[in-house]
């Protein structure tokens, strides 16, 4: 027995005394509970796929990359508390978060603390305009997305000249991102000669949109430009059909990009267009392979949110490989010099048109056709042509 105890003690000491494998830690602030949890879970899937790939390929200079993921509970206050913890801990960079109302304050705080930050999901222009030398965004912003929508509307107008597209009605939530995209939409409508015949914001938590939709029906818009979060977009689509609000083009940002949107509204989802940063059928090298890896990890259909999570961590790993991970200044300089190609997009942070640390990514327009999201614009990246115009609800 004495021999057995001594052997066990020796084994324990050997394990305790073994040198731990060197690691590089990255902090992640993500919405895993609260209003934005559906998006946060998708980002976590993409981050994990990227992490597996990075470590399978040697990690960071031979060291394993690790993620410390903290839930911000879909609240800015919680996110800031976590950011303070990461800043004190000495992580080389932070990735976060989903909502612009969270990421905006986060970017300001981490800038003051001189901690490099990569934006995970937020797209409000103000985060990178005027921006900060410590904040970087590989995904699109509201200027890029708004332009993609109106380029698409112009494309449809020029493709079918017998289907006039002259008027637009806008419905959007009062959060940071919907407001930002609506503002850009109104600017572009004026610039390109579209008449705005409806302009209505709504509060978070509203479930009955019928009074607004009935007013829009009276205005008879050619285009519906809607910016909504997950459940809002489902309710709006169902109620559009209920009140008979028709339009030749229906664009619903954010919610319509989710696979669950199609599952929840069924055939009513067909013909709806939405802007994304990535899709499985886009003509980028490696896009299909990435789709398969994301699908396997998610256990279901992935969206561009998983791809954005993957992209954020791939950008971080590329910078960390070229930097001294123990020096935040070195990491910031490496991020500023980023020039890589991924299956999601190319990344090259530039300062242009008032933006700083913003990747000039091309947004894609997906249209739901027969229950599936299909890339239809721009032409050189499209898998199929857009189905246009949208038929009236009574004829479907």
Automatic annotation (TrEMBL):
Gene Ontology biological process terms from the UniProt entry: amino acid transport
Ranges of residues in domain Leucine-binding protein: 23-362
Keywords: Amino-acid transport, Signal, Transport
Signal peptide region: 1-22
InterPro entries documented for this protein: BCAA_transport (IPR051010), Leu-bd (IPR028081), Leu_Ile_Val-bd (IPR000709), Peripla_BP_I (IPR028082)
Family assignment from sequence similarity: Belongs to the leucine-binding protein family.
Protein name: Amino acid ABC transporter substrate-binding protein
Naturally occurring in which organism (per UniProt): Microvirga aerophila
Higher taxonomy: Bacteria, Pseudomonadati, Pseudomonadota, Alphaproteobacteria, Hyphomicrobiales
């Amino acid at each position: 027995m004495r021999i057995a105890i001594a052997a066990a003690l020796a084994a324990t000491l050997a394990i305790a005394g073994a040198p731990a494998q060197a690691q590089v830690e990255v902090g992640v602030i993500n919405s895993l509970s609260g209003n934005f949890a559906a998006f946060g879970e998708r980002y976590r899937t993409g981050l994990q796929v990227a992490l597996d790939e990075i470590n399978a390929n040697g990690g960071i200079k031979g060291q394993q990359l690790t993620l410390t993921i903290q839930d911000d509970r879909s609240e800015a206050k919680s996110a800031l508390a976590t950011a303070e913890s990461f800043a004190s801990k000495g992580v080389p960079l932070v990735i976060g978060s989903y909502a612009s109302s969270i990421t905006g304050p986060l970017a300001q705080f981490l800038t003051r603390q001189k901690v490099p930050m990569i934006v995970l999901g937020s797209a409000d222009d103000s985060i990178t305009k005027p921006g900060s030398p410590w904040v970087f965004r590989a995904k699109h912003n509201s200027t890029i997305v708004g332009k993609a929508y109106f380029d698409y509307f112009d494309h449809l107008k020029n493709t079918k000249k017998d289907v006039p597209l002259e008027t637009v009605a806008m419905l959007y939530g009062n959060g940071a991102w919907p407001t930002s995209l609506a503002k850009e939409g109104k600017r572009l409508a004026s610039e390109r000669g579209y008449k705005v015949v409806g302009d209505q914001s709504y509060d978070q938590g509203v479930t009955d949109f019928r009074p607004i939709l009935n007013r829009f029906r009276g205005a008879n818009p050619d285009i519906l430009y809607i910016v909504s979060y997950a459940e809002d977009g489902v309710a709006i689509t169902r109620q559009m059909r209920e009140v008979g609000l028709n339009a030749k083009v229906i664009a619903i940002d954010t919610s319509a990009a989710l696979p669950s949107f199609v599952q929840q509204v069924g055939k009513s989802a067909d013909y709806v267009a939405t802007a994304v940063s990535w899709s499985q059928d886009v003509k980028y090298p490696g896009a299909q392979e990435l789709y398969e890896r994301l699908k396997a990890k998610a256990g279901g259909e992935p969206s561009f949110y998983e791809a954005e999570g993957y992209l954020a961590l791939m950008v971080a790993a590329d910078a960390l490989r070229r930097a001294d991970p123990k020096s935040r200044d070195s990491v910031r300089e490496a991020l500023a010099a980023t020039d890589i190609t991924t299956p999601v997009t190319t990344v090259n942070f530039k300062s242009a048109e008032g933006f700083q640390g913003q990747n000039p990514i091309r947004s894609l327009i997906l249209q739901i056709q027969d229950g599936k999201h299909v890339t239809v614009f721009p032409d050189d990246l499209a898998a199929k042509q857009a189905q246009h115009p949208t038929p009236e609800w009574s004829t479907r």
